[in-house]
Histidine phosphatase family protein
Amino acid sequence: MATTTVHLLRHGEVHNPDRVLYGRIPGYRLSERGQAMARRVAEHLSTAGRDVVGVVASPLQRAQETAAPVAGAFGLELATDDRLVEAGNHFEGTTIGSNPGQLAHPRYWRYLWNPVRPSWGEAYADQVTRMRAAVDDARRAYAGHEVVLVSHQLPVWMARRSFEGRSLAHDPRRRECALASLTSLRFDDDRFVGLHYTEPAAALLAGADPVPGA
């Protein structure tokens, strides 16, 4: 029996002084604190003697920059998987994340009719489909070892709820997926047997930018 761990790593804090809900917009880099978070995760994994033999990241800059120190710590080449990308969002480019009162404007109402799907962006079920496919491919490619997949808050949270057999509909304020956190999925062969959540950069979270869409 091959025991494999797939670590879902959310990227670190992003440099976002205008507090834009940046979604898939290119060019959003890690802040200095975010870079420190990425280094902290790399140190956490390497000093614990983890058997990491693969690092794969979303194509977005903030995920690539978070993954780089982890790959470097284990002497690995960083791979990219488009399926790990941030969720699509019709509010991308706005400041609604930090000023939700804007949703009262009629121009946004057409996106708010179904919060369960959700109607304002990529369906939760579609995120689960692509994230689970990425996890399954990584599990097979690195069977018997550990692999780190660097993604974004909502796709990671959707994957977790799916593996736990929970409803995909949820309160965004109750997501357990902090910046630079690890949601570690454990498999015996192809059977999911449990998960463990950790925050290696917890000491750096105080005061971190809470704007969603990351």
